Amino acid sequence: MSFISKTKELWATSTGLFHHEMTHSFVDNQEIYLLFEMQPLIQGSRFVLFYGIITILAPIIAFYCSRKKIIKLPLAIGYLFVMVASILMATITMDDTLLGMPPLTMFFPSALAAIGLTAPLVLLRTVVQLCSPAHLTCFVTSLASFIRTLGIITGNIIINSRYNASLSQNFTNSMSELGISVEQSQDLFQALRMRNVDLLVDIASRLGVSQQALKVLENIADKAQMDSFRIVWIAVAVLAFLAAAGCIAMSTVNQNEPAPRSTPTITLPSDSMPRVGSVPNQEVRFSAVLDIRRDPEKPLFNDMEEIVKY
């Protein structure tokens, strides 16, 4: 626990970078569009929405955080936005509609994810440098790059393994109901596994598979793909929560500077010095500036005469 406490900045940054790349690699993934058969214009509009929000908010958040010298609150709020977006993506189904248009169900989570990812995208690159000791800066920077790459690799492993397992199980269970023989199943399964709709249609027409059976096969592939993405979004939501908690636990990078030491004032009675002015019993004040290089054990002045000379 002591090690975790002393390195909580590195733990939070590493979790955040891992989560950021895992989310970033899937929130824009073309595979999710195939589920809703979006038109190129709608796909491009979603890209414009996602990157447009980040482009607009990035300089604003960077300027605000640099002026206010804060990073914990923007990071935590950003990850909470991403967590909500990930939960929405994990619960979405093929039948969900927004304003009567199924493609719009993907726009709202994408907007939330873009808002949430802006702060980590801007700030974590800086936090990696600030929270690391000077002699470990190069090592930590390389580690951060490795963690970002690991997020993409892990996400792809999860989705591909889950997709193949779910597709194989659902396809095997539906073979007898659709009247598909074992000889026909090999080519059809390969086309489904490759997510190649055109190849699937060609093989189905060549093997004499009915349009009804072909539609069922497409639904099986869509369900398997949706299930595989759902696992990723659940993992992203958990990582977003952990990253938010880690960022809240970060130590303040810019500690408040200590107040300057007050200048000592030496007050002398008026009878030990020539009277200044005409006010009786006026006190004369001498301000001595401390030299931080002097020995604190030695007196500031040796005697009263030295004070007068000073």
UniProtKB/TrEMBL annotation:
Coiled-coil ranges per UniProt: none
Segments passing through the bilayer: 48-66, 73-94, 106-124, 136-159, 231-253
SUPFAM superfamilies documented for this protein: MFS general substrate transporter
Polar residues compositional bias, start-end: 254-270
Annotated region described as Disordered, given as residue ranges: 254-274
Swiss-Prot/TrEMBL keywords: Membrane, Transmembrane, Transmembrane helix
Protein name in UniProt: Uncharacterized protein
Organism in which the protein naturally occurs: Clathrus columnatus
